[in-house]
Predict the structure.
Amino acid sequence: MEANVVLQNKSLFLTHTKYRRDIIKQKPKYSPCIIAVLTTPTKDNNSISTSSKTVYKDGWFNRLAINHLSRSVQAAIGMKNDKSGFESLVEAATATSRKFNPIQQRQLVIQALDMAFPSPIMSLIRALLPPSKFAREYFAVFTTIFFPWLVGSCEVRESEFNGAREKNVVYIKKCRFLEETNCVGMCTNLCKMPSQAFIKDSLGVPVNMVPNFDDMSCEMIFGQEPPLPTDDPAFKQPCYKLCKAKQRHSDICTN
């Protein structure tokens, strides 16, 4: 009788142990889809590069928006490419940076934005949302919802505006466009400057885009006038060593 009880208990123990071992061996069904690791910055922070890029899984809306903007840029510069998705947009941007000078680059991007976002729609938004705290906060929230396909993950943050606190800042954790192009000049001339001009001219709200080239983050501050290029720290930065546009570590990409 006692021997039977011992054997039964031993059998249960072995079964339980095997079950726990099987659970431990099981792999998780899902792995993280975003990996972003930066190398340790050297004394010259502008020489850093990403050792692993962020991986994006674009849904139908993201693909539609990316292809629409890419075709608009290609039409503006008069050059087509046979790539698709974000790769097509980067290819068009790279061609723009290589063929045209910085002033022309900014003008061409503004033309592309005019094609991508029809002026009647922008004029209607401007009429419905004149400059105000509500408008600044609305544009910040709108950006975080509808533009991660272009800039990557972002969130709304507060800042002080005319002595009061407002949620008028979009914090971009790691800019998708900057990470893909890996070029300071393409950031300033194909994104920062034309976007600032387009948003102010079409929506009537100034915005200052403040990129951080150390970690590839950026802040979009709605309601704040951007500094002149001659006073803007972004134009004093040498490019990354792995710059895709010029392949040289200097400030030639921004000037």
Summary: The two ends are 92 Å apart (CA to CA).
